[in-house]
Amino acid sequence: MKFENILKNLNCLKAYDLRFEKEWINDILFIKDYYNGNPDATFAALKNLPKTKGKKIAVLGSHRSYGKLSKKVHEKIIEQAKKYVDEILCIGEEFEDIENIKNFSNLEDLTKNLKKIMKKNDVVLIKGSRFLKMEKIFGFLN
């Protein structure tokens, strides 16, 4: 293809569903990224959060298939998240033993806490795997 044709059609490109989808709700930017929850995808999402006038909040779901490495993997995720966001809310038993984080056993309780901390101009990254059904957070926001 000629470069001119590529440039002309760039605006037709669309990301896969549930991957870094941006949606404004009540002056808060939500980034829905809950198709794949592997650590590298999580690090990439954290690094690419847009600049904002408000806080950056990460809602992170646990990763299940790491066996004996699970604790180290989840500690690394939190370590990286702390570099990029102001608040971290987690869900999943794999985060249970990590100190100084807010971990929840269900999405409803997590969302109640999220509602208390988010304000106008904040960015909220929702990142996790499909098995956690993190899209349910939006049902609890109302």
Total helical elements: 5
CATH superfamily: Mur ligase, C-terminal domain
Largest sheet strand order:
1-2-6-3-4-5
How much is the radius of gyration in Å?
16 Å
Helix fraction bin: 25-40%
Q: What gap, in angstroms, lies between the N and C termini?
A: 47 Å
Could you say which structural class the secondary elements and strand pairing correspond to?
A: alpha/beta
Shape: globular
What is the H-and-E element order? HEEHEHEEHEH
By oligomeric state, this entry counts as single chain
Q: How many β strands by DSSP?
A: 6
How many domains make up the 3D coordinates? Answer: 1
Low-pLDDT runs: none
As a percent range, the share of strand residues is 15-25%
Main β-sheet: number of strands, strand sense, barrel status?
6 strands, mixed
Report the mean per-residue pLDDT as an integer: 91
CATH topology: Protein-Tyrosine Phosphatase, Chain A
The CATH class is identified as: Alpha Beta
The CATH architecture can be named as Alpha-Beta Complex
